[in-house]
Amino acid sequence: MKILRVEVHLMFMLLFSYQFYVLAEKNDHQERRTYIVHMDKSHMPESFTDHHEWYHASLKSAVDTAEMLYAYNSIIHGFSTRLTEEEAELLQGQPGILALLPEIRYQLHTTRTPEFLGLGRSERLLPTSTSEGDVIIGVLDTGVWPESKSYDDTGLGPVPSRWKGECEQGTNFSSSNCNRKIIGARFFCKGYEATLGPIDESVENRSPRDDDGHGTHTSTTAAGSTVTGASLFGYASGVARGMASHARIAAYKVCWQGGCFSTDILAAMEKAIEDGVDIMSMSIGGSISDYSRDTVAIGAFSAMAKGIFVSCSAGNSGPDSGTLSNVAPWITTVGAGTLDRDFPAYVILGNGKNFTGTSLYSGKPLPKKLLPFVYAGRASNVTGGNLCMSDSLEPKSVAGKIVVCDRGGNSRVQKGIVVKKAGGVGMILTNTEAYGEELVADAHLVPAASLGQKAGDEIKKYISSDNDARATIGFSGTQLGVQPSPVVAAFSSRGPNPITQEILKPDLIAPGVNILAGWTGKIGPTGLEDDTRHISFNIISGTSMSCPHVSGLAALVKAAHPEWSPAAIKSALMTTAYTAYNNGKMILDVATGLPATPFDYGAGHVDPVAALDPGLVYDASVDDYIDFLCALNYSSELIKQTTGRQFTCSSKAYSIQDLNYPSFSVAFETASETGLGRKAVSTVKYTRTLTNVGKPANYKASVWPQPAKVQIKVVPELLSFSTVNEKKSFTVTFTANSMPSGTTSYAHLTWSDGKHTVTSPIAITWT
């Protein structure tokens, strides 16, 4: 028997040797790229006793010179490697290969927040520091700057005994850089280096140390320790603390100067699961693809199956519709809203008009007089001179003047540097139609203010009408209590879900504009070479900032309810979110100035105190998500590729509408008029199950507002719960006449027992 196995093994190794010999010269001249090779472990020949040996043999049988970058053991079965296109095709045809996934380059989606969220006013309702300290948040990002005060471990107990992670050593980073706050730190760069070459360690630390600032900012937003006297040049001064300030942080550096590569991300997700994180926070995004080919979705499924809550940023491609990333239903997808804090800057014109914008400029102010100013488009001889690109301004036209630059094309702060180098003394940064009235504060290196499109158009009219146009810029620090707040950030990516429209995304929004948190000591607040300032905290914006807010808040819920599943935690955060201000008016969208919709904010703005006691939750298991994939007509192979599980869909009727999701997205097809001149009527039924996580109570359903175009019927309308964890199901039937394609309608379904309000958004579209 042993001899037979050896013979089979040798035959396997030699099977394609002749073919590869013929291809060898040809492949030497082909460009190689990185692939994740997803294998079906159940197909491993009996001659192999170890799957790593099988992976190696499979690879070597395809190309003798290729090497494995990573071997994946649990999150998927397989490995990553570099192959030519022909080698990839040949390997794809071998037994046991589920899929070859080409490397994807992901990008980062780039205080007062606890008070704004009500955490400061509700300490007695929060979990104890001991239970919170048992929760571990894994942050996949650019690493950590361990010297930040936000990583101080004073008052924290011993590291949880179940923790299996470690503090990896590397350039300027040792095990002593970890403590009882940063309990783990790893770095992953094999995929990055395979594509872009070795990391230049004179520029970038080949270690968990954060050279960018993004990872330090996101991790301290989620779980930074309390720091008094925090600010950025005096702006946003006060106490800085993460959402779960006693939770532990495990850093997984997967993002480098050239981006974040899917092979590295998948390896980091696998290691985070093995290490024992409870929450996985990922403020990164890439191209949209089907769940079976989405690295983050595949990794997140394995994490969810292990009881890990996965939070991802929705993306910064708003306000255009259908621009979301990270949309798998087992991921919590987070959009961005504003705080009630601003940093006003004032532009005063020579014609007496004043405009309010925003700025974080902290240097020497402009003289107390009106100065000449000019529009960049008239101070340049190059195409696109209005954008103040490098070397685009004529010094003779801008010397001693304030320059008006249009937003776009290069970084906002870089424009001010261009103005300064050309001899200008200040900058007014004006939005174009693409950015509307959205204002993002920046730590400019010259006196500068950002203004919305309307103000920008007024200023340009003034310059055109007056040959001696003059202006000045003033700054007034930090303003609190700004209303209305929150509003949906214009940059926050929007629904509908581009992969499965019946799953409403984003799930919710959280603070993501002008957020103060810890920063790296490597670079200044703008990250530009010309910026030599060193800071401990920075103020930046993006769904990258809103994601760790939800990650930290999920840690609070996990600490209070350690037995809850990731789906139950998501449900608690979603069904207690709010969509209206205290005055009853709906949350606004800054991009339009109009009320936002569930495609903008999902279930609404997160309310962490309410989430600790939601009353009821929409729970979901691994089997529920597999049924969802069956409803998408996934084959057994695609299910295994996505979930790592062997499953064959049965002959029963599967329905996307039956996934127990805390929101409703209803898609009606537009039908042509019938011969009788009447429009076809469509009916869609959704089934949901609620689990009681509170005291015995009777819940009554209500739909608000009642949409004129759709009839919505809930059966039954009353649910009675007598015990904890009792489950009750109901159906929601939507009946509507055909409408023109693109028509939308919105509503909410609320279950209330008089104390709790369990609310789900409803988005209805005709396609």
TrEMBL record:
Active-site residues annotated for this sequence: D141, H214, S544
Pfam families reported in the protein's UniProt record: fn3_6, Inhibitor_I9, PA, Peptidase_S8
Region (Disordered) residue spans: 200-223
Keyword Membrane: no
Keyword field: Glycoprotein, Hydrolase, Protease, Secreted, Serine protease, Signal, Zymogen
Compartment annotation: Secreted
Subtilisin-like protease fibronectin type-III domain span: 658-764
GO biological process: proteolysis; system development
Any GO MF annotation of the entry: serine-type endopeptidase activity
InterPro entries per the UniProt record, alphabetical: PA_dom_sf, PA_domain, Peptidase_S8/S53_dom, Peptidase_S8/S53_dom_sf, Peptidase_S8_Ser-AS, Peptidase_S8_subtilisin-rel, Peptidases_S8_3, S8pro/Inhibitor_I9
CDD domains named among the record's database cross-references: PA_subtilisin_like, Peptidases_S8_3
Span of domain PA: 385-459
The keyword Hydrolase appears for this protein: yes
Domain Peptidase S8/S53: 134-590
Annotated Gene Ontology cellular component terms: extracellular region
Inhibitor I9 domain residues: 34-109
Signal sequence segment: 1-24
Biased composition (Basic and acidic residues): 203-215
Superkingdom assignment: Eukaryota
Record-linked PANTHER family: PROPROTEIN CONVERTASE SUBTILISIN/KEXIN (PTHR10795)
Similarity-based family: Belongs to the peptidase S8 family.
Protein name: 2-alkenal reductase (NAD(P)(+))
